[in-house]
Amino acid sequence: MIALEEPHLSPSHNPDDQARLQAIIDAAIDGIITIDTRGIIETVNPAVSTIFGYQPEEMIGNNISMLMPEPDHSAHDQYIENYKRTGQRKIIGIGREVKGLKKDGTVFPFLLSISEVKLQDRIIFTGIIHDISQQKKAEVAQLESENKIQSIIQTAVDGIITIDTRGIMEMVNPAAARLFGYQEEEILGKNISMLMPEPDHSAHDGYMENYHQTGKRKIIGIGREVSGLKKDGTVFPLFLSISEVQLADRKVYTGFIHDITQQKISEERLRRYAAELERSNRELQDFAYVSSHDLQEPLRKIQAFGDRLKSKETSNLSAQGKDYVDRMLNAAVRMQNLINDLLTFSRVTTTSKGFEKVSLDGILTEVLSDLEITIEQTGTEIERFPLPVIEAEPTQMRQLFQNLISNAIKFRKDNEKPVIRISSSNHQRTAHLTSTPGDEVVEILVEDNGIGFEEKYLDRIFNIFQRLEGQKYEGSGVGLAICRKIAIRHGGNITAKSQPGKGTQFIITLAKKNLQE
């Protein structure tokens, strides 16, 4: 490194001062270059080599323009010449942002300040170079980030409003202006309370003041449903969430506004629809219950007169007459079974007994005991695994197991021993209409090796009176519909997997805890 102007120092200059000055220059982070009046580089400090990528010997003795991109590269000598002739400064003693050219061809920004130094016999210029590449990158990144944020704010579907601690609106995005029916300039600089109906309109400033004094939050950082007031006087529901932002010297609050008018309309329609559906369902159940009871009396008379006609004491019927009576009585029995099934179906959601802790294992044992004779006669093999305790209606759980096991026995294959496997597992619900995600549910599997069915009929088999096998098997087509109603009432559902000739697997989900009555 060539000592800065060492040949021109006064002989009386203190060598220690010179060494100290040189050490400071060499240790400087910024680049320091001296050039003569022709633009020839005389000295450079180590920082210049770091910034431009040249060794000192590659720069000293060459024109400073080697470190400049076009057009400064070509114009530099003329600039010095013009300065010497006219004294007109463009950068000397002023400083500004310029471009530099590194050895590898990279162009980069830096701040350049130049001072003119008059020595005993000549003039030199000293340039101090501060590389601002990283600062510029940070500025560009910040600008891009700000542009992205601004773009998001301007194009957001929801309204966004920023207010100061007095409630004065400082920023309103287009969505918020549209939402309230104003132009942005109509509400900027105004108190946010103008967008609120009473009593919030009058209470807002007091709420702000109370928050600043006590820190007690009612909505900041929480969010809730509130009412908004449009320019035309319309009051509408909205969901408002507010965030508090601490700037360098003050606080601001940003509100995110989501119009829930359509959501409220939909909720009201659903509420009315559900109420109407519930009313219709009760009427249908009452109709089924009353009709079933009303059918009992004439049916009992048909059965009684049929039995009397068949009795030995009074029977003078021909063989054909006896056949007709037998057919009538068989039809009456089928009618009685259908009425009983309808009564059971109508009772599923009208039973007065509430939910209680129920051992599904105990319920299953009772059902298998009731079906013991049928199980022995058909040679059915039961494979059972532990079942949990849940909150349920015991009678309906008994009905559920009885229907599914009876079906499995009924729809067995002629040439194969019936095998029924009953098991369960617990898992967290991900989504369901009757409960929230995360609720624990029980999944019960009832599997058989029976005749099965094609899964294209899956939507049909749980509807009332659907019988895929026609008249081949006894039954009214109500059993699986009852199972579905029971599962739904217990916070779950029922579905199945099956293939013809390969058996069926029924999957029943039940909530472990039920709050409905």
UniProtKB/TrEMBL annotation:
GO MF entries: kinase activity
Pfam families in alphabetical order: HATPase_c (PF02518), HisKA (PF00512), PAS (PF00989)
Domain named PAS: residues: 17-70, 145-198
UniProt key word rRNA processing: no
Top-rank taxon: Bacteria
InterPro entries from the UniProt entry: HATPase_C_sf (IPR036890), HATPase_dom (IPR003594), His_kinase_dom (IPR005467), HisK_dim/P_dom (IPR003661), HisK_dim/P_sf (IPR036097), PAC (IPR001610), PAS (IPR000014), PAS-assoc_C (IPR000700)
Residues annotated as domain Histidine kinase: 290-514
Chain ranges of the PAC domain: 94-144, 222-272
EC numbers, comma separated: 2.7.13.3
Keywords: Kinase, Phosphoprotein, Transferase
Signal sequence annotation: none
Record carries keyword Kinase: yes
Stored NCBIfam families: sensory_box
Name of the protein in question: histidine kinase
